[in-house]
Amino acid sequence: MNDNVASDRLEPLRVSIAMGSASDLPVMELASEVLAEFGVPHEVRIVSAHRAPHDMVVFGDEAEGRGVDVIIAGAGGAAHLPGMLASLVSIPVIGVPIPLRHLDGMDSLLSIVQMPRGVPVATVAIGNATNAGLLAVRMLAISDPALRQRMTEYRHSIAQASRDSGRDRASGQPSTDNDLSNQKQDRK
Hints:
This protein is α/β, with parallel strands linked by helices. It has two domains: about 1-140, Rossmann fold; about 145-185, no CATH class. The chain is built from seven helices and six strands; from the N terminus they run ββαβαβαβαβααα. It has a six-stranded mixed β-sheet, with helices on both faces. β5 (about 95-100), α4 and β6 form a beta-alpha-beta unit.
């Protein structure tokens, strides 16, 4: 599967989302959704470090020449894809540990986090491709003021959503710490 999510793009490719197999797609498509929300041109690729290592090397060797600025790589089990890609490129690689039946993704997390000195991989929580997408946006926003503004607006919107979730359900007024203490006292 080599979906060019932004195949009709007028802007150059910015992010490549890579994963070891199609079974990783339900997790990794969350990164694609974030990038689409921010208008970041990206692609989604299946690149197996174990089943097709030569293809992975070609993908890594060509990534920067194709305009890729950030790679988001998801992998489960032995989870070598993010680290192997990081060893091939000079651009940031964000690793997403994919949870599997066994060990709930802890094996993947440790494989991605424990990279040797000199081959860094930024790593997000197990299965949290949403944060990988957001981190890629923040990396790109360093040199893109319009993207930085959209990230600032996003941060404000999630802060407001958090505030709104704390409103008193009956009155619609913000709950205060004192209100919460009174609620605890009422339950005793």
